[in-house]
Amino acid sequence: MKRRPILDVSDLKTVFRIGGRQVAAVQDLNLTVAPGETVALVGESGSGKSVTSLSIMGLLPRKVGKVVAGRILFRGKSGEERDLATMDSEALRSIRGNDVAMVFQEPMTSLNPVYTVGEQIAEPIRIHLGRSHKDAAESAVGLLAAVGIPDPGRRARQYPHELSGGMRQRVMIAMALACDPVLLIADEPTTALDVTIQAQILDLLRKLQEERGMGILFVTHNLGVVAEIAHRVAVMYAGRVVETGAVTDVFRHPRHPYTMGLMRSVPKLGEATMLKRQGIPLPTIAGSVPSLLALPDGCSFAPRCPYALDQCRAGVPALAETGGRHKSRCIRWEEI
Amino acid sequence: MLVALSMLVFVLLRLAPGDPIDAYINPNVAMSQAEMAALRARLGFDQPLPIQYLAWLRAAVTGDLGYSIQKNGVKVLPLVLERVGPTVLLMFLALVIAIVGGIAAGIISAVQRNSATDVGCSVAAFVGISSPPFLTAILGLYVFSVVLRWSPSGGMLTPGTPFSLSDLLSHLVLPACLLSIGHAALIMRYMRASLLEVLNQDYVRTARAKGVKELWVIIKHATRNALLPVVTLIGSSIGMAVGGAIFMESVFNWPGMGLLLVNAVDTRDYPVIMGATLIIGACVILVNILTDVAYALVDPRIRVA
Ligand SMILES: Nc1ncnc2c1ncn2[C@@H]1O[C@H](COP(=O)(O)OP(=O)(O)O)[C@@H](O)[C@H]1O
Ligand SMILES: [Mg+2]
Fold first, then answer.
1. Where's the ABC transporter domain (chain A) (predicted)?
2. Residue B58: exposed, middle, or buried by beta-carbon count in 10 A (0-12, 13-18, 19+)?
3. Which of B300, B301, B245, B251 is nearest to B276 (CA)?
4. How confident is the model at residue A1 (pLDDT cuts 50, 70, 90)?
C-alpha cells in the first residue's frame, strides 16, 4: 500500500530573525503524508512543531520568520504537485482553507468573537467554492451536524462565547473541513481540552478521516495521543526530526535515546497514580531543551543523552535507515 | 444626574462674587436701597439658596426655565432650543471628520507599522493631542481666514444673502475641522494600538488560515474587534467635544449653545446659564446612552439574551 504522498517536505529550513540574528527553528526536515494517512509530529514544547506547520501553511509571522531552504511539495485537489515554499502569496491563499486546512491548539481564542460560528464556517465555502451566502450557510449547518454538534441550526446562529471549549474545537474542525481539504494540519488540537473531551475529538477526527480520506498531520507533545491516532510518527528535537517510522515500530523498538526518554516519561495506565502514592516522581528526561541561540555542536540531544560519546559532539548525525521505513538520527542506534 | 449638575451650577453661580441683582439694574437710573430690596423680594433673591433652587427646579420640571435677564422678557427654553441645531451641526460634522479620519489613519498606521506613514501619523497625532482647542481655534482662524482667505471668518450664514447650503458649508467646514483635530488624533492613537493588539490574536491567524484575502482579514476580522475600545472613546469624546465647541463657537461667532453660554456668563444671565447647562447635560447623557447601544451592536458578548 504505497500511495503517492499529498505532502512531501524535504530538507526544510525555517529561520527566525531574533534581535538581528538569524536562528534556525527547523532544519533538515523531511516529512511525507499520504492520502488517508495520519502522521504525528511529536516532541517537547519548543522543538519546532508549530513552526513546521506554519511553514507548510505559509503563515509564518511576516518579516520575522521565513523558509530559507527545502521544498514543500503539495498535491492539492487538482492533482497537480506544487512547491508551497516558492509559491506567491496569492496562490498560497487560494490553497489555504481549500486544499489544506489547519486546526489550532486554542479553541477559546481561535474563533472570532464578533461573528456567529455559522458565519465563520460558511466564509471559506464562499471564498473558495464561490457559493452564495444562503447556500454556504446551509452547508455550515450540515458541517456542524457532521462534527457531532446537536441542534446545529440553532448553534450556527450562536457566537463563540456561547459554546464550550470542546464545542468550539468541533467548530474549528468543521471550519477546516468546510472545503473538503486533502490535508488537515492539526496543531495540538486536544491539548487545551480535558481528557474525556480529548478522547471524543480524537474519535471524531478518526471518523472524519475514514469518511473523507484526507491526510492528517497531527502535532502533539503527547505520545499517548500518538498511539491513539497516528499511523506514522516523526519525533522532533531542537528543530530536527530525530526518529521517524511506523508508530508500531517506533513504540516497540525506539531507536533514539530521546524517543526512549519520552516514552519512559509517559506513564502506563494506572501507573501514574501508583507512583504518586509511593511518592516517586514520574521519570523525566534530565535537563531541558536547548535554546536555539545556543545549540550545542553535533547532536543537539548529546548534553542530555545518557549514551553520548565524544563522537556525538563532532557532527550532526545523519538520519540513518534502521530497517523498513524506520530511521534514527543516532550513531549508536544499533546498540541501544 | 441632571439634578446634581443643575444644583452644582446653581451653587457655583451664587458663590461667584457679585450680586445677581446687579444684572437687573440699569446703572443710569438711580435706585434707592428700599427699591432694591423690593426688587430682590420680587425676584426671590431674598430667600435662602435651597428654597431658590427648589423654586427653579419646580418650574424646570414643567419645562419653564424662566426668562432671560438680558433679553427682556424672552423665555429661556426657546432661546436655548434654537441654539441646539447649530451646535449639533457643528459637533456632528466635527465628529464625523474625527471618526472617519482617526479610524482610517489608525488602521493605516497599524498595518504599515513603523513605516514613514506610521511615524508621520503618530507625530501628527501627538501634536494634535497636545495643542489646546483655543490655540487651534485662533491659529486656524488666523491662517485659513485671515491669511489664506479660504473661509469666512465667522457666523453661520452670510447676512443679507438668501440661504444656500454651500454658504452654510463654507462657514461650517473650518470650525468643524479645527474642532475635530484633537479627537481625530486621540481616536487614531486608540485605533492603532487596538488594531496592533488584535492583529496578534489567534482568530486573525485563523482567518488567514481559511484563505481570507489580507484586506478582508484587516477590515472584517481585525477592525471590527479593534473598534470595541474605540467606540467607548468616541462616546466620551462627544462629552469632551462640548468644551471645545464652546471655544470654537465664540472664536468663530457660531450661533450655537456655546456662544449663548459664553455671552450669558459675560452678562451674568443666570437663568440662561442654568438652562443652557441643563440642556447640554441632557444631550451628553443621551449620547452616552447611544454609545452603550452602539457598543452592544458591535460586541455580541454584551448583548442581552
Ligand atoms: N514568532 C517567533 N519569533 C521568534 N522565534 C520563534 C517564533 N515562533 C517560534 N519561535 C522559535 O521557534 C522554536 C520552536 O517553536 P514552536 O514551533 O512553536 O515549538 P513547538 O514544538 O512547541 O510547537 C521556539 O524555540 C521559538 O524560539
Ligand atoms: Mg506548538
1. 7-263
2. exposed
3. B245
4. very low
Q: Which three cell numbers stand for residue A101?
A: 486546512
The ligand whose atoms approach the alpha carbon of A187 most closely is 2
Atom of ligand 1 nearest to the CA of A64: 3
8 Å CB contact of B208 and A96: yes
Q: A49 C-alpha vs ligand 2 centroid, how far in Å?
A: 6
* pLDDT tens, chain B, 305 aa long: 777 887 787 777 777 766 666 666 666 667 777 777 877 777 777 777 788 888 888 877 777 777 777 676 778 888 888 888 888 899 889 999 999 999 999 999 999 988 999 999 999 999 888 888 778 888 888 888 888 877 777 778 877 778 888 888 888 888 899 889 989 999 999 999 999 999 999 999 999 999 999 999 999 999 999 998 898 888 878 877 788 888 888 888 888 888 888 888 888 788 888 888 888 888 888 888 888 888 888 788 876 54
Query: Distances in Å between the alpha carbon of A213 and those of A38, A175, A248?
Result: 10, 17, 21
The residues spanned by each domain of chain A are 7-230, 241-328
Q: What is the pTM of this model?
A: 0.84
Which residue from B91, B1, B7 is spatially nearest to B274, judged by alpha carbons? B7
Distance from CA of A41 to the nearest CA of B (A): 19
Residues B110/B190, Cβ–Cβ less than 8 Å: no
CATH number of A7-230: 3.40.50.300
Whole-angstrom distance, CA of residue A25 vs CA of residue A16: 7
Out of A95, A114, A127, closest to residue B300 by CB: A114
* Sole residue written with cell 432694591: B36
Cα–Cα distances (Å) from B187 to A253, B138, B194, in that order, read 62, 23, 10
Q: Helix, strand, or coil here: A20?
A: coil
Question: Residue B209 and residue A57: Cβ atoms within 8 Å?
Answer: yes
Which pLDDT value is given to residue A255?
94
Chain A hits for B301, Cβ within 8 Å: 113, 159, 161
Could you tell which of A12, A14, A16 is best to mutate to test the pocket of ligand 1, judged by most ligand atoms within 8 Å of the CB?
A16
Domain chopping of chain B, boundaries: 2-61, 76-298
Cell 447649530 sits on residue? B86
Q: Which ligand is nearest to the CA of A236?
A: 1
**A110/B203 touch (CB, cutoff 8 Å), yes or no:** yes
Q: For residue range A201-212, what is the model confidence (pLDDT) as tens digits?
A: 999 999 999 999
Query: For residue A157, what is the nearest residue in chain B, using CA coordinates?
Result: B300
Contact A97 B203 (CB under 8 A): no
Q: Residue B224: its chain A contacts at CB < 8 A?
A: 114
- Which residues lie near ion ligand 2 (Cβ < 5 Å)? A 50
Q: Which of B211, B214, B301 sits opposite A159 (nearest CB)?
A: B301
**Chain A interface disruption, residue of B206, B208, B217, most A CBs within 10 A:** B206
And the C-alpha cell for B114? 513603523
Q: Which residues of A touch B231 (CB under 8 A)?
A: none
Residues of B with CB under 8 A from a CB of A: 201-203, 205-214, 221, 224-225, 298-301
- Least-confidence region, from A173-177, A181-185, B123-127, B130-134: B130-134
User: In chain A, what's the furthest Cα-to-Cα distance?
Assistant: 66
**Homologous superfamily in CATH for domain B76-298:** MetI-like (1.10.3720.10)
